[in-house]
Amino acid sequence: MCRILLSVLMLGWVVSAWADLGINADNFPNGIQSHTNNGKITFGWNGVLETDNQQVRAGSIVQNLSQPTPTCGASGFCQAISPAAPKQDAGSFRSASGSPPSVNVGYRGSAAVNANGSNEYKNWDVGQEATLTINGNGETFLIDKLDLAYRATLVLGGGDYWIDEIKFSGSEVKIIIPAGETVRIFAKKSFSVSFKSIINYRDAATPGLPEQLFIYAYDDVTVDNQSLIPGYIYSRKKVTIGNAATWKGAITADDVTLESSGARVIYAVPPEPPAPQTCLGDDFNRLALGSSDWAVTSRNGSFGVPKIVGNRLRLTNNSGNVATGATLQRLVPASANFVQVEFKYYAYGGNGADGVAVTFSDATQTPQPGGYGGSLGYAQNGSISGFSGGWLAVALDEYGNFSNPTEGRVGGPGFRQDSVSVRGSGSGTTGYRYLAGTAANLSPGIDISGGTAGPGHTYRITLDNTVAGKAMLKVERNTGAGFTTLVSSFDVLASSGQAALPANFYLTFTGSTGGSNNIHELDDLQVCATRMDPVGQQIDHYEFVHAGNALTCNPLSVEVRACLNADCSLRHTDPVSVTLSPSGWEGGSSRTFSGGTLVDNLRVTTAQTVTLGVSNSSPPLKALSQTLCKVGAAPLSTNCSVAFADSGFIFDVPTLLARKEQTGIALQAVRKDNATQRCVPAFGPATRTLQFSSGHVDPGSGSMRPWINDTEILASPTALPLVFDNQATAWLKVRYDDAGLMQLNARFDGTGLESGLVMTGTDQFVSMPYGLHMFIPEQDSACSTATVGNDDCAALRVKGQRVAAGDDFPLSIRAVAWQADGEALTAAALSDNEATPNFELASIGLTGTLVAPTPAEGGVAGSFYRHNADGSRTVLASYDHVRGASTDLTVSQGEVGIFQLTATPVAGSYHGQTVGGGTSALIGRFTPAYLGVTSSASLAPACGAFSYQGQLIGFAGGQPQIAVTGFNRQGAVTRNYDRGAFWRLAPPQRQPYSLIAAGRPNLAARLQSLGDAESLAIVDSGAADGRRAFDWRADGVRPADALRWQLPSPPSDEDLPLVLTAAGEHVRLRIGASELTDLDGTCYGSGGACQDFEHAFGGTELRLGRLRLDAASGPQNQALDLPYWLESWQSQGGSSVWGETLGDTCSTPAALGQVVLSGFSGGLQASDFPTPPGSLEAPPVATPTPSGVVRLPAPNKSGSVLATLSGLNGASPALPWLWFDWNGDGTPEAASARATFGVQAVQRALIFRRELYRQ
């Protein structure tokens, strides 16, 4: 289904397929540029770009810095900068299809080609000194080949030219582009502009403006020597400018070359683009016209209002004497604007009458069609006024009378059948003068005979007001061979009697038939303007409500309603200013009122019939609006006449509160005193029986009736005896138990001496509810106090379900009757008052108030929302109270807390009266719908870029941390959740950390979680952000969380290096769902079910390491080195082995500690060694090279001793992660090795002392 489409087009460009294509400063920032990052600009000797900007967008520039004139002219030598110029994409090349015709112009011949809508050609051959003129009319041409011979001339009118092959077969060619025309050439194949040719000249000697020509080349372009071209070119490949050739404008290509001997490019800064046109198009491909963009009316005939029939807008059917109008709901500024209206027109199915007028009218006046028949809904027709505010109309006249100075029309050449004509401004029955038009009998005609829709010609109406003091109108038509001019451009303002331009126009299409008829339809409408504005707020129509009977000696009470929609269920409650008619309003004819309703008295002192209406309105009336009137209980109609009589009954029932009786109401029989014009008693004292009846005015029906003097007054007459005093006055008491605008009618038919005397009287009165009772139906829990943490304010539950922030719940509002004076307008006080089911009122304000947490506690107000039937939700700012026991809404509150709602009807909005509102009980407590949890845990490598198994691995930033945040059902943060006692979650406990790594169950089992499982709360920032943070830090009693893997014995493939990342193999922090469930049952997990929280983190590589210390032997009189090796478990050659560890920053000599000796044997003892007994030294040059050596001094005695390092030993060794199960007992221990002194070589027994390698 198609809808009104809004688009932006550029004046002068016909096609809009490539939004970024064409001439603008972004596409051509300098005279030369490349659209690729590696594009090259080459300047031959004395090649120059005349520009004031030496920065050129290109990958590189080749130039001779010694040439006398810098390559970028006065700005200096050009400099390459990035980025590249924008790429432009014209899409796939458009080629001619089939076997199109050719155009051949011989030697010194001439020919012309006119645009015809298809415009496909095989060849254009222009011979020597011949001329070919193309009247492009802005259309698109597809040509296989263009061949231009010696001194050939090609005149190109405005349009797009897609040319597969361009050939300059001769030199000194001229391509002329007339002034004011714009041409785009799309060239598929490479081409060369021949020697001394000129392109884009207005004549043989006058160059055109560069912006008149745009060339898009799919291949290379070469401009031969001494050629001259003003224009802009974009080439996907290369552009070459020959010797002494000049290009004025700009060039963008992959590579650009300016050849030697004065090739020149003169940069012309692209002009500012023309003001964009706002275009509103409608193809009517839908079922209903809709009211957002169109206003429609019918002023005569049986057809009704314009409507969509068969995907076209039908203005009339083929019945007689029809007058309709369809106004576009846009304001078109009249000054400095360019307006173009284009549409297809169908007139068929009848006997040739009358036509359609396209009308421009003053927008300060509500558009109303003029006379039907030959006036086509625009001009006057005898006593029928012309178009309200009419300034200009272009008529498509089938019958011919729009040009005829008959039936009150002013000017015109006479009857002109099948013509297009123009009439100017007018008012009432004057003006609307004939301005211009075609001759009769256009061919083809305006309409067709027969029942098939046609002819479907396209009409284009252009109103150009861009030149101050001028309004140029032009009318064109396209019957299939391109547009032709029907009414040549002329200045409307220069016409005699023409009104000045208004501030804004309305555009209206009027359709008309008379004694003869046709079906009249529009299709494919497009309205474009430089400026087109929304109409803003409009009054749909005004309604007048009154009793009907009126006396000349007593004013008539009238209620005026400003309606925003057709049934007046919506009213304009903001201030509105009107001029009321007729004169005689007690408050004056010009009034301003708010609330949507005005009640005033109209005084007419002579017996007559007057018509109620509105002559001016601000906000303005919707186009084609009609005033409606409601007389008594009768339905609304356009009959707004009121008859005033000289005698009758006067009584005035004041505004009532439903169910509250009003006494002391005077009913008086009066007549007009001709001398004083006042009401005087009409008869003497007596008891007389009057017939009373009642009617529901607004709403028009109801189940209850008013009571007078304890008698129910029905719709049919009810006899009621009344005692009249000497002032002809009787006294009434009145009660009505419902709400609404009611009418009481009184009638007296005289008998006896008063036989023939008939007196009547009516009065309308308002009965309104006492207040509005708001409550939540089927509420399971109530919040009686705004205190969290006790049973008096549990979480809100409705129908057994907890209602969290963002969850919808029912809200009912009853309009209730009076029960006692001074009763509070609270839910508790109004709960037992009777309902007033006939009450209805739109736009009753609803205001939510935050009760707790208070603003002093940092509470955020939050918003109530209304949930609509279509699934959307809107802020609950007001509601429309509808008839019935209650108005039921579905609402939600987006924030945590305890709230109240207050209903406040707009002052004076209920038939001029102000209805009491109401305040709800406490609503809440609202909890979050769910909790969100985030974590920032990440491991910190313990040993440079990695960590060892067995090593204590801490966390980056100190310790793991989680943030818990409350969210409403829509995913917004509930900022009040962290305010005081509204936070209901205890510090959560984590589960032990776990390793998630495929194929490493034993490694995972050896992970130890160090620290306390229960989290600690972090001091809140104080901001109402709905979140609190927790971490597993040290607190002086417990350590911060850390991880450690127990060492294996023996190692396996699982202990090979493991890189831990959040996205790969990782450590997992898990917090169970129960730990993330608060006291109200709000828990982590937005999907409805409570979930465990898991956070994957990494941050280190995990290795299994060890320190290996080798035994050694040597002479007793020399120092002995025991090599040690820092190793890690690695994969080498497909096997797991111990290999050298790289990048270890923690196993420093200082950390390894001092040499420790034990197990002395032979002649050695501790005293044979100094303190300390050895040292750690750098390794000697050897293959393989150990990590270091333990050097023992010469003891000068023979024997052996067991050596180890203090950093690996003791109760709390510094480097326990370097232990290994050396003896195979399943328990890792520190490395040690035996040093043997007193031997010259390695003893064979040492072979059996090496460590055990267990895998």
Explained architecture:
The protein is mostly beta strands. It has seven domains: 103-237, no CATH class; 278-534, Jelly Rolls; 541-645, Immunoglobulin-like (Sandwich); 649-768, Sandwich (Immunoglobulin-like); 771-926, no CATH class; 930-1101; 1105-1249, no CATH class. Helices cover 1% and strands 42% of the residues. It has three helices and 97 strands. Strands 2, 4, 8, 10, 12, 14, 16, 19, 21, 23 and 25 form an eleven-stranded parallel β-sheet that branches. Strands 1, 26, 28, 29, 31, 38, 39, 40 and 42 form a nine-stranded antiparallel β-sheet that branches. Strand 28 (307-309) and strand 29 (312-316) form a beta hairpin. It is flat. The chain starts with a strand and ends in an 18-residue tail after the last strand.
Structure keywords:
nine-stranded antiparallel beta sheet, Jelly Rolls, 42% strand, single chain, disordered C terminus, eleven-stranded parallel beta sheet, 1255 residues, 1% helix, mainly beta, 7 domains, 3 helices, Immunoglobulin-like
